[in-house]
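Hi U.,

Before I forget, here's the chain from the pilot set. I'm dumping it here mostly so it's searchable later in email.
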Amino acid sequence: MPNNSRFGSVAFRFAVLALVASLVPWTGLRADPDPGPDGTGIAGVVRSPDGAGITGAEVVAVAGSAGGSRRVVSGEHGVYHLAGLAAGEYTIEVWLAGSKRLVQGPFSIGSGETRLQDFELRLDVEGDTLEVAAETNRDQVMGTELREAGARDVAEALTVLPGVWKLRKGGIANDVVLRGYQGENLNVLIDGVRVQGACPNNMDPGVFHVDLAEVDRVEVSRGPFDVKNVGSLGGVVNVVTKAPQKGFQGEVTASGGSFGYFNPMGTVSYGGDKVSALAGASYRSSDPYKDGDGAAFTEVADYKPSTTDTAAFRVTAGWAGLYLSPTEKNHFRFAYSGQQADHVLYPYLLMDGVYDNTDRFQAGYERISAGAGMKALRIQGYYTHVAHWMTDELRNSSNMAPRPYGMGTYAQTSASGGRVEAEWTALTLGMEITRRQWNAKTMMAGMMYMPQYSIPDVTATTVGLYGLYDQPLFQGLALKAGARIDRFRSVADARLASTSLYYAFHDTRNTANDYNGASGNLRLLWTPTPALEVAAGVGSTLRGPDPQEFYIALKRMGADWVGNPDLNPARNTGLNLDVAYRRDGYSLRATVYRDSVHDFITVYDQVRLHMVPGVMSPVAKSYANVDAVLYGGELSATAVLGQRFFLSADAAAVRGTKDPRRDLGMASENLSEIPPFTGRVAGRYDDGKYFAELEGVFSAAQDEVDGDLQETPTPGWGICNLRLGAKWKGLSLTVAANNLFDRYYAEYLSYQRDPYRSGVRIPEPGRNLTLTLGWRF
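Structure:
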């Protein structure tokens, strides 16, 4: 186990490193390692249309009269710097795989001048412009960057962003944590559609059901500012999958590494004027990883000795899309993705996934210039289904069971719905309809395998109307506003619901809930100079209880697990201030926020209120509303030193508190599962052909824990990662060495709150290497 005092001052150390990182560029830019005759150059940021920086874009300056060109690659947050140019006229070309090539200029650059020039790059192809993610305080990570990190899934790779953490369950299927929000408090979308896990304990989060090989980019929007998608209490994570590019193209990649990791994958596409298509497949498998002390994660949980050498996961996925553009104004999209996961180990929980199968269907239509002044009309529909069987047959808890397992749950869920959206110059209006059906059946040896409908075939439906307004007030100042109104209905099958448990612990037999809700936001974007942007906003968003929080019911030895049919929706009213500054290849961004969440939904111990035949437990794990506050900030800085060297640093902190409810036995003021202060410092060399990056990641200790849920403090830690890569024509080679010094450590989000937690901390992997060889044609 690590010594807490060793990293106890990590917050101070990182603050010093961040300060050094922010000071270096001011001197480093003056000492350009490859200066031109007069220090002339071009610097700026490559952005997507909604302002998020794009990493890895090629920026080429083509000289007018002198001829020749200079080329760089945009670094973190999209910052680029073309230094050492001669005075004259230049045309700039900006390009990224999956985008439309942007050509601008000519620009005239005077002697000794460093011109600030930003570029807006569209990250899609014609006929694939359905936009459903939130539009404020947004970051994105490109798929190439995700795969470069050697991560096993999307959630693990997203931790490169400040304010994003992961919840570790095992070798795969990590969950995203954004500013302390997770699970149902976040909207996790794939191409703007909902994919929700079937496990009642969030074993298979939505982001698990997309393969890294499918991903073009991931968009992360923070705070209660999304009105396009119902229930975005803490933010939105939208995974955007690949789309066809012009002509015939393809990519074949094979990854392998420590702990038996193996991941071949491939994608092929054709993009034409009228018809485009794409198809791909992937396979991922691995043994249980070992921690920094050399122990497999099966050794720290309650696994049978015979499972020490078993697989940690096996996942097969395939996907295909068809894009039709019969005219320049009409575009159609049809897509399918399927994933089959089996033998997925979850030492974080009491059971493992025997299988977890997912199907995703979606269709979209866009009409450009639809008449009546309308810029675009968009229609989108989807259906997703997840079937999941989980047991404890690999655990010691099943040793004396009459069946191979002592506990098993079969669960399935489907999500369907769609939206219609019309866009004018300053106004967007839309309607969203969502429907989720969820049922789960649990069998336990202690209950003679009598089926218990833990999720009693619940149907949850939402109909919402929304509007967005975006209008410049005057030069340098823009107003953005959004509003939404929803009608919610959630109904459980009364024939399956264990209403006796609801009555015993909550004095109700209710199996249906209806409520209405409104959301809205107001934001101001001020750009006093080309180098400075200030964004301030206030938003309020509603999130209704999910079927588990309302209606789950399960009799267990010691303590039952019971939903609360009388829960209120949670409402987050948040303030956000974001300041971004850039100057000649230097970028600094700082964000502070405060969220006041009324009726936040948390787990607690509910004592039995009524004696009911068959209900023996005096206490049950259940859900209650509390008032909570989450506040914190993120800081990121990036510098381009010369043309090929990038220095970056970021940090994030969040604090979560709640009002104690002593009437329910909640005395702690700390909100549960709030991640600690974390930071990162990285230096990177990248000339477009070769790159090398050295990264340090740090976490402070977390001792602000929720004693009501038996949380205990977690020591701080620090690790070092190294990444190397090379490109030659269509070939690429990447090596990722994570936890380079083989440290033993466990993150704070490494064990599950009640119920169904295994009670042990899951350590992070020890030193591990991933080698990826790719061919793009």
